[in-house]
Structures are given as structure tokens and as C-alpha cells.
């Protein structure tokens, strides 16, 4: 009987030792991942919006959901920074602020003024709106007066080319017109320097980037150019599209603003 009790005790002891070893290995592994691996995969989330309206498509976010997303950033003390601040971090080798995030809009639709601007102003957050000056004043697009007002109240107005074209197919002359011409047109409207451009549909190549640099831009935004593009190529910043789904799916918006969404997305693409 005593022998049996001793065996049971010994078995329980060995089991505790195994659990302790397993937990120790798990903690060491987790510490290594958290300390050395994950930080190298972190990318400052640049959120990409298009329309703030009630259309049922993947380019629209309702005003209510947009407000909820900004409230999420504000309540959880995210550091919402401008594109200029983000570029300065890398140009001057500064430390990335904790929980940094950037807000951008593409296309320059009028609903950015009527439905988004009021929330941005209320929360006092910086944002960049990429505008197509060739469409300025068209039905459904921002007017010159709306651009001026937003520019005077903390919104950075930037280029989305002059006529919303696929830049990789443009001739050298067309690139000058679309890239430099849009910069000049927007500067005449706002009276301020235009420092950034976003490539329509994310389309760019080396020739396009060179034209952007020669035109005097500080940086450019793509969409999701993939693993072949550096995380912090200031002329091809990676961005994350935001949708209404991010309010319906638990933790979706949190994950997109975590800094690791782009790495996870590229890993999924690689596996395919």
C-alpha cells in the first residue's frame, strides 16, 4: 500500500515538473517572439478611407461607423499623426510613437467634407485627403471652397493625380502632367505646399516613383504593394482599407490598427 502511494506521489511530481518545463519553454518562446520578432514586423497603420456615406459597397463607411472608429482611437489613446510626421520619423531617425496611426482618404468625394470632416474636426485629429483636382467641382466631388476650408482647419490636401489615371501606363510627358500638374493645381487652390501623392488603384513602378521625387513630393502612398516593397518606403507607404465590416466583426478594427495587420495579410498571401 505504501509503495502504491509512493508511486502515485512520484507520478504527480513528475507531471508537475513536465507542466513547469512546458510553461517555462512557452514563456521563454513568447518573450523571444514579443521582444525580438514582432517589433521587426510592426508597420504604422495608415488607414485608407474612400466614401463616408450609406452606399452598400466596399469603398463606403457609414458616418456612424466612421464616428465610432474615431472614438475608438481617441478613447484608447492612439497617437494619430500626420503623414508629414510619419515621414519625419524615418528621415530624422526618430522613435515611432506608441500606438501610432495615420488617417487618409482617396478620391476627394464631397461626402468627405459633408460626412467625415465634422468628426475629424470634433476629435481634433490630423488627416490627409488625396484629391483629383481635374475632378474638383464635378458632381459628387469636393469643390475648391471645401478644399480651402479643410486645408485651413488641419486637413492636409494631397494629390491623387490630375485625372485619376493608371500611372504605370503613362508616358514621361503624361507623368509630368498627372504628378507635377496635380501638385501645382492643388497648391494654387489651397495656397499651401502639397507634399504627398497616392497612386490610383495603388499602381506605381520605379519610373513613377522617380517622377514623384522629381516633382518635389515628400512621399507617396500605395495600397498594399506586398512583401517585395519595404515596410517603410516613404514613396510607397502601405495602407489598410477600412470598411463597415470592421465595426461588425469583433476585434477587426483593433487588429487593423495594431501594427501587425499588414504582416499577417502578407503572410496569408504568401501561403496562397
Question: How would you explain this protein's 3D organization?
Answer:
The protein is an alpha/beta fold. It has 2 domains: about 1-40; about 45-270, Glycoside hydrolase/deacetylase (TIM Barrel), CATH 3.20.20.370. The chain is about 50% helix and about 15% strand. The protein has 10 helices and 10 strands. The chain has helices at about 1-40, 65-75, 85-90, 110-125, 145-150, 170-190, 205-215, 245-250, 250-255, 260-270; strands at about 45-50, 50, 60, 80, 100-105, 125-130, 155-160, 195-200, 220, 240. Strands 1, 4, 5, 6, 7 and 10 form a 6-stranded parallel β-sheet that branches. Helix 7 links the parallel strand 8 (about 195-200) and strand 9. Helix 2 runs parallel beside helix 4. The longest helix has about 40 residues, at about 1-40. Residues about 25-35 have low confidence and may be disordered.
Fold blueprint:
Layout: H1 2-41, E1 46-49, E2 51-52, E3 60-61, H2 63-75, E4 79-80, H3 83-91, E5 100-107, H4 111-123, E6 127-131, H5 144-151, E7 155-159, H6 172-190, E8 196-198, H7 206-214, E9 219-221, E10 240-241, H8 245-248, H9 252-256, H10 261-271
Parallel strand pairs: 1-5, 1-10, 2-3, 4-5, 5-6, 6-7, 8-9
CATH class bucket of the largest domain: Alpha Beta
Show unreliable segments.
26-37
How many β-strand stretches?
Answer: 10
Which topology of the largest domain does CATH recognise? TIM Barrel
- Average pLDDT value? 89
Query: What's the helix count?
Result: 10
What is the domain tally?
2
Main β-sheet: number of strands, strand sense, barrel status? 6 strands, parallel
H and E string: HEEEHEHEHEHEHEHEEHHH
The radius of gyration over CA amounts to: 24 Å
Structural class: alpha/beta
Which bin fits the share of residues in helices?
Answer: 40-55%
CATH hierarchy: architecture of the largest domain: Alpha-Beta Barrel
User: What is the approximate shape?
Assistant: globular
**What percentage of amino acids are in beta strands?**
5-15%
User: In whole angstroms, how far apart are the ends?
Assistant: 60 Å
The CATH superfamily of the largest domain appears as Glycoside hydrolase/deacetylase
Amino acid at each position: 500500500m505504501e509503495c502504491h502511494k509512493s508511486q502515485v506521489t512520484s507520478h504527480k511530481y513528475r507531471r508537475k515538473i513536465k507542466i513547469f518545463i512546458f510553461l517555462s519553454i512557452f514563456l521563454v518562446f513568447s518573450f523571444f517572439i514579443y521582444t525580438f520578432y514582432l517589433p521587426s514586423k510592426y508597420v504604422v497603420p495608415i488607414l485608407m478611407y474612400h466614401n463616408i456615406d450609406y452606399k452598400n459597397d466596399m469603398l463606403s463607411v457609414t458616418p456612424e461607423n466612421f464616428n465610432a472608429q474615431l472614438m475608438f482611437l481617441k478613447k484608447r489613446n492612439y497617437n494619430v499623426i500626420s503623414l508629414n510626421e510619419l515621414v519625419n520619423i524615418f528621415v530624422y531617425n526618430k522613435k515611432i510613437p506608441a500606438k501610432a496611426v495615420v488617417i487618409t482618404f482617396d478620391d476627394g468625394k464631397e461626402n468627405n467634407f459633408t460626412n467625415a470632416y465634422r468628426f475629424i474636426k470634433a476629435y481634433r485629429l490630423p488627416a490627409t485627403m488625396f484629391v483629383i483636382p481635374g475632378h474638383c467641382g464635378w458632381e459628387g466631388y469636393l469643390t475648391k471652397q471645401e478644399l480651402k476650408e479643410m486645408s485651413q482647419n488641419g486637413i492636409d490636401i494631397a494629390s491623387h493625380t490630375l485625372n485619376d489615371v493608371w500611372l504605370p501606363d503613362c508616358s514621361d510627358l503624361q507623368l509630368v502632367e498627372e504628378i507635377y500638374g496635380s501638385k501645382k493645381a492643388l497648391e494654387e487652390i489651397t495656397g499651401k505646399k502639397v507634399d504627398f501623392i497616392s497612386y490610383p488603384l495603388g499602381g506605381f513602378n520605379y519610373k513613377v516613383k522617380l517622377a514623384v521625387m522629381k516633382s518635389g513630393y515628400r512621399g507617396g502612398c500605395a495600397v498594399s504593394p506586398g512583401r517585395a516593397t519595404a515596410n517603410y518606403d516613404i514613396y510607397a507607404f502601405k495602407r489598410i482599407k477600412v470598411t463597415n465590416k470592421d465595426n461588425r466583426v469583433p476585434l477587426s478594427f483593433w487588429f487593423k490598427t495594431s501594427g501587425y495587420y499588414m504582416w499577417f495579410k502578407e503572410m496569408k498571401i504568401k501561403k496562397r
